[in-house]
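note to self — DONT lose this again. spent like an hour looking for the file last time. sequence + predicted structure for the chain T wanted, 153 res
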Amino acid sequence: MGAYLRIVETKDMAAIRPLYDAWLSIANGEEFGLDIDSDVADVNGQTLCSAGGTLLVAYDKQDPVGFFALSPVPSAVSKQTVVVCTFWFALPNANLVGPRLIEAAKDWTARNGYSHLLLSGSKIASDSHDKICRYCERVGAKHFETIYLLEVA
């Protein structure tokens, strides 16, 4: 992997469906009381893309191996619009995909006139939350916020 790796910008949710299905096999939704649904993710992803967001999909030859879903949103605390990486995933054996997607996301953010990219490491994603957080800090991202999910129903 790596020599053939290419990043493609798209708004086609079907491009990431195989990756989403792979993510579902390791996701921790039940631990948080979340009923994860790939059809809902498709609809929400289309909404995100229609509102100015995009998908960056990494391919190794013809196979999708990772993606970032990017969404510009107004900052709650400043006049800037920030780009939130609302959902991202790379296959566990896709070693160079994360760094390449982060670089592509930084490029997309700057190219579209935004000043900040907000990355997250969610415990719902998999058991590699702490590893993802350490990686984000290694590439220069600053610990910005910690979010808690409270199930009330």
